[in-house]
Fold these 2 entries.
Entry 1:
Amino acid sequence: MPTRIFGERIKRAEDPRLLTGRGRFVDDIDLPGQLHVAFLRSPHAHARVRAIDASAARAMEGVVAVWTYTDIGPCQRRMPLLIPHPDLTHPYTRFALARDEVNHVGEPVAMVIAESRYLAEDALEAIAVDWEELPPVVDIEAAVRPDAPLVHEELGTNVAAHYVGIVGDPDRAFASAAHVFRERLVIERSASMPIEPRAILATWDDTDGVLRVWDTTQAPIVIRNALAALFGLAPTQVHVVAPDVGGGFGGKIMVYPEEVLVPYAALALRRPVKWTEDRFEHFVGTNHERLQIHDAEIAVDSEGRILGVRDRFLHDAGAYTPYGIIVPIITACQLPGPYKVPNYHVEFRAVYSNTVPVSPYRGAGRPHACFVMERLMDRVADELGLDRAEVRQRNFIQPDEFPYDVGLIFQDGAPTRYDSGNYPAMLDRLLQEMDYHRLVSEELPRLRAEGRYVGLGIACYVEGTGIGPYEGAHVRVEPTGHVYVATGMPQQGQAHQTVLAQIVAEELQVPVETVHVIEGDTAHFEFGSGTYASRSAVVAGSAVALAARSVREQGLRLAAEELEVDPADLLVEDGRVFVRGTPERGFTWAQLAQLANPLRYAYAGDLAVRPRPWSGPALPQGRQPALEATEYYSPPHATWASGAVGAVIEVDPATGLLQFHRLWVVHDCGKVINPMVVEGQIHGGIAQGIGGAFYERLHYDENGQLLNASFMDFLIPTAMEIPRIEVAHLETPSPLNPLGVKGVGEAGAIPLPALVAAAVEDALRPFQVHVTRMPLSPDELLRLIHTEA
Amino acid sequence: MSTNGVERKRIRLTVNGAPVERDVEARLLLSDFLRHELGLTGTHVGCEHGVCGACTVLVDGEPARSCLMFAVQADGHTVETVEGLATGDDALHPLQRAFWEKHGLQCGYCTPGMLMVLKAFLAENPNPTEGEVREAISGNLCRCTGYQNIVEAALEAARLMRQLS
């Protein structure tokens, strides 16, 4: 019998070194003769740079160079627009070091390169900048008014993009509806906040003429290609490694100024150069996400069935649009969620502000979409006197309606087409896990009778995952029996080395420990884009499976030739390929790899390869000297995961504090490769979702100063705030890829704002509180209680 | 002694059981000393303002934020880092085994701090409740795991350690 490896709770290959302090994060690497960089960053949200005097800093002991815009050679070009879009009519990207204007607090203005980081930071204080302050634009509602000051004068507008998507005939649907409900809904600004800040180390290797870069990036191949183009080097002359990376969550996918400036310094100075971001820099120098203001309305019939949705929203783009309008496009496309919305009008304006630029953070526009849609569904239920679960059941896309077209073009340029799912079963399962009806009819009334403010919420979501364009993988069986796997995807904690090994081990029926996955190193794999959009297991996983299957076929063919049998009579089990019924007639994978390569292996022991009479070239035409394959997988469009969450929470009306009693998740990400890893992803997403629902808000004042740029003031939940999470899996395989898998990375983060809003509202029914903003906070809850009461 | 006009001082301390003697700048952080002078890069730095807990080490057996201490303050003291937890490749500390078993880490960045704080905690409280574990690690931020499997791992480690003692 084949051994089942795919789908098993296999312990992670990554862990032993990470647990013993032998991980290798970028800042862990020190090279001899290394220099250190510190950046001077703008203290103003919007200002003109009249002059910079760095002479005193340059004269300081230990300072090797102080650079401003004029000193940075090829890096003087504007930073790239990574993802254009036809509706992004007014894109704008920055200069790596400000040329003549800064547009947010934290924008890099000058860089000091010194013998130590301590000395580099000392020198920052000696740089004098002559600023001319300009009016800051912070409030995006004010920013779209005709008389608003402009973030970028030459654009003539603060509106970067105006998008309209229409499905069906929304106006007619609204005109004929029994009920129309309107909401104004806001999700505030937040950010990924990985515990490891960004870091870059670069060195020019003169021996082989290669620029080596270690970068905390989620996309090393993108960085390599950018650096090669920028510096006029062949791609093979740039070697980028994303080694162990301490969390990413979206914020580490970009081409940031530091990612070109540090390698340029290494090239120009011919010494290793390192920069490690400190936490304050991370708050003001690494991209943010989330702020959107929605004016949404829903039209339903008298039974609560959706006739149409209209939503107009403002999206805060921050100061620049290097990542295009991916986030609001995702919001627009995913807003209908798991429901049939036959008529849909969605429209947004992406608006510049003098704040840190916005690019995806775990969820990437989806938490906003889910918050809007689920708030509308709750409103329909409450207005029509229906159970909140029942309203959802009445509107779900049914299992026999897949593939289901939402009718809009998704982030990857492909149709927003749900491939598979079973939403009614998903919600049923959640209600069963929760013992929903008992909660509603017995438990909550009992607790409320004790005077406690307990509430129940549910929320459902979908997640477009596993988008293209493609990823690839190389799989090779070595003559030692080891299996080498390389992909272009780096990881930031998602267990790729384990789950990709499981895929290969399953195909070849070898012990998972013999499969070594190398990732995030452009010397090992040169094609692909990176880790984002919950796509690694789907896209790289599928490529790995295809490559492993090709290697399996090669092994079968070779064994059949050597054994003079039909390949169909061979079995692959227990690390061997052998003849059905006579297991002694066969080869281990190591022997097959040796057979494939007609060379002698010193020290290899009992070889399968024996001298044989001449019968032509040692390597006949069409044969390669290894069992190896490179395959690519390019999905036709996203594959759609889904989930439902439920919670019972309690609010203390005296303190405004919120406590979870129970928190349930039913999640469907198709076939599960490793349930332990999937649960870990869900737990982590939920924790960030709880942060986004009650704790984490980046707070800008009217001058564009970020008021809470430290972990003292920006509250990431601790183990005290995150409750036990009860996870159940459904498996509706994706028909789109060879493994039937869907992504899971962002799942948990998506529904939590919607869930907490519903539960808080339920808990505070006596005060008739209506939750329309996220995140909440103790202050905000108290304000709601006292205003509404 | 001074270079670059910065005062240097000779310090002697014990790190993971071995004596260490170095000349350091007075302003050198203990975290930077451990990582970049001694090459003990298992201790991570996440915020440099004493909140995230990634840089937690044990100083004379007590958890301390190495980003909030100068190396010179460790003069004459005993420092333990994550590198000192396992006694060999096949001899992971019960905490390390439990974290592996229970999937108590994802990116691994907060992990050394978690392990060190839990080492001190379990020495004080070998049979903790879930709530006590949560409180014990509430000074350490994790952005990946949602803490649940860290809590499971800590409880499992406590069980393993009770069996051993």
Entry 2:
Amino acid sequence: MTETLMAYDDVLAAYDPALGLEVHVELNTASKMFCGCPAEFGGEPNAGVCPTCLGLPGAMPVVNGKAVESAIRIGLALNCQIAEWCRFARKNYFYPDMPKNFQTSQYDEPIAFDGWMDVDVDGETFRVEIERAHMEEDTGKSLHVGGATGRIHGADHSLVDYNRAGIPLIEIVTRPILGAGERAPEVARAYVAQLRELIVALGVSEARMDQGNLRADVNLSLSPKGSGVLGTRTETKNVNSFRSVERAVRYEMQRHAAILSGGGSILQETRHWHEDTGITTSGRAKSDAEDYRYFPEPDLVPVAPSREWVEELRGTLPENPTARRARLQAEWGFSDLEMRDTVGAGALGLVEETIAAGAAPQAARKWWLGELARRSNEDGVDLVDLPITPTDVARVQALVDEKVVNDKLARQVLEGVLAGEGTPDEVVEKRGLAVVSDDGALGAAVDKAIAANPDVADKIRDGKVAAAGALIGAVMKEMRGQADAGRVRELILEKLTV
Amino acid sequence: MPEISRDEVAHLAMLARIDLSDAELDHLAPQLSVILDSVASINGVAGDDVPPTSHAIPLTNVFREDVVVPGLTAEEALSGAPAVEDQRFSVPRILGEEA
């Protein structure tokens, strides 16, 4: 079904958007939230399970202390209060992805609440208020068979793997973000990107959106401009990249506006984001399904973190993101614009790691915001999800610095790494990309170029050194780009000038 | 005293994915009402000074070390499953909802 959309500028003229983001972070603990099964997903199906995470009768859960520690550290990094006493709760629903028929979560007593995070959007700061961060467990993974492409419609039955059931999750919920106006889509993207950066700095999750370690749900509503009355919201799920967060917000703004301006009303429902087509489709209406009959989990005792423990964990926090950005900008000597572009592209951590791996700051920035940003746009994936590491990028720059390859060949090396051909050195080797700086081979090519362009050679002999460019071009062509241009120039001048 | 209506029982049955006929609803709704009434008699004993209690023992912070311990093999895990396919639990088509 194709939805009617309103042009974006018209949406802004008539409505104010209100955003809300719920981000699930899968922790990188060794074991699950309530049992000793490995917190790893993707291995042999149903080989990482036990009576507790299968919900077998009589099994008793016990809380993973490390997961509580990670939850508190996330809460503190988001400037939250940490509960002095809180309980887990059962969220009851009957669906095969949770064999217990409930998900162990937290309800009205989250471990962390009332925080904020400052988000930079093109040099402007938006303060995003955090309502809560609570602990819960992940669900099993269903595979729908019998229908087309694994989707549920038309499926005869579903196959469930419970390896993921019980992996610790932290759900971070914002308060409604108001006043972002036309920049609502960018604010949403920047929030998720900078939250990810914080999670990475804390070291509590792999935080890869493409792997589902970090998942965003986007709530959006519109209110008539200036009315200050919140409209009915929709919740869009499955938004698995920064880019998609931005696109999903924009799409929902345009969809809501078209319905509202036509006199219709928004149905409060879950929407599903489709990466390929860039649209959302209706999931389920929330009214009935939202009845979870929460009650305190009787099998788990309350969590009451001592203030001493909380303060000890506060001492382990990484530098706050605003201070970190300021420090890195000073260290790297980036202009405000360069820094803004780096943060905006979600490349701060990548550039930092590339520099740590030996590249000069400007070189690191050039690759991530140039060639690699272009590739990420073309492929529709976030920079962090490109199949290349900061170490690879630093090595490519080192190959340029060592004059093994020139800039042009370096791009082919990156292409090879992205295509899965191996490390930068392996790509150079396999594709035969190293430049020739051997004087014998270069000298022959230079002689040939001089012979073929006698008029140019004469100009150089007459002292017009600038004309050497034409000969360098001819040599590069002869050598199929694999020549050290600096050395070629030297050879030409040696041969033609006294 | 709480009274549970037939409609509420029907709603709960829907949430629990239990398919109840009209006759079963007529039969069960009054029974559930009696059970709730019986449990509610506790209200008569607890005074206003007794806070709602979820845990009988005043214990907090029972934590496990973050260590992997062996669980079940896939074969053991699936041994009680009514249907298995591709080493996964096979369940009926999921009712009219997206995963």
